[in-house]
User: Fold Alpha-1,3-glucosyltransferase from Brachionus calyciflorus.
Amino acid sequence: MTVLLFDLIIFYPSVYLILNEIISSTKTKDSILMNTNQKDYLISLLLILLNPNLVLIDHGHFQYNSISLGLMQLAILFILYYTHDNNNNNNSSKRNLLHLVLSSLFFTMALNYKQMELYHALPIFFYLLGLCFKSNIFKNGFVKLVFIGSTVILTFLILWLPFILNGLDSVAQVVTRIFPIKRGLFEDKVANFWCSISPFIKLKENFSLDTLTKLSFLATLLFNLPCCLNLLLRPSRQRFMIAIVNSALVFYLFSFQVHEKSIIIATVPACLLINFYPFIITWFILIANLSMLPLLIKDGLVMGYISTSLIFLLISTIYYKNRQTKESLNYWPNLKSFNNLIKFVYFLSLLGLLILTLCALFLKPPKKLPDLWTVLICIYSCGHFIIFSIVFNLIQFTLKSEDLLLASTSGRLFNFDCSLFTYNNNNTLSDAKKKLN
Assistant:
């Protein structure tokens, strides 16, 4: 009940406001496209609220991830608000500065509520820094940087004040609990890189804890650098939204002491973009649910796992596949020469998901390999996550325009200019009407 209460107070309103910003804010006089926006909005809202990963973990496993994720989404919201008014008047500058301050405040609160928000910290840092550089760092940019830094420091001081007043020992104990280095690289079977290669390379036996800590840190930083530098040098809101997913996925794959449920830190922001990349994101959500299956079996959530996965898959497939045939906005992969191959791989992937699910539920593993199905699920899911990470990075790097999150002829804010796993939105309003008719 308390989880649902916080959903209603923080998470659901933040989802509503973000979707209102990226789908429904730009109005058009064309009744057909206005109706399309309304349908997109409702289906996106429904799919985000039915995200099986979040539903099962927060309402089955009884976690309060929706609080930190809701605060993170409020931070995203004010970042999206920032570039709406590009006028250089005084009122616009003050409003934009307020948006940056509020974004910094909400994200710092999210980070202090759950340290897993570090998964989203790098894109937010690099994007805000990129905005400061873009505004001329020696003039307006410096002022923005001071306000952002002051907000973060002041919020940290207020939240940590009770521990600081109790002395440095109290602070050290909290830090130790937040970063449990002594517990090892991974504790249980999780579908990240380190756990997936451990059956073949005995990491814990062959490397010291200090070496593994440094290795995971360097790998996480190295694989995050491309998307973050891209965001710093070419800051735009659609790049930022995709970079949030890229960073979270890299942290899940390569960081230290990752838990099975940590995949929701990547799937929640990904689900915000399901209206624009439904094929790849639906696929991602389903594999993420599979990666948590061993944990869900322990918690007695098998029926929840099956029902939420099927509901999510059916709604997404039926709605977006119909849109492919009835509208000019092609929501499925438009790599025409590889379209059939991609779909074939997709169905093979879901077949593998089904087989592993049935084995984990009904087939006892050999006595010599009691964790066989769990390990196979980890390796299978990890392989998918690495591919998803590559695809999401390709999407971010192939965005051509500096900031396409503006009013367009189709009445959409997220006018993505990308040929990978998205729709072709270069048609004029008249062309769209002809094809719709």
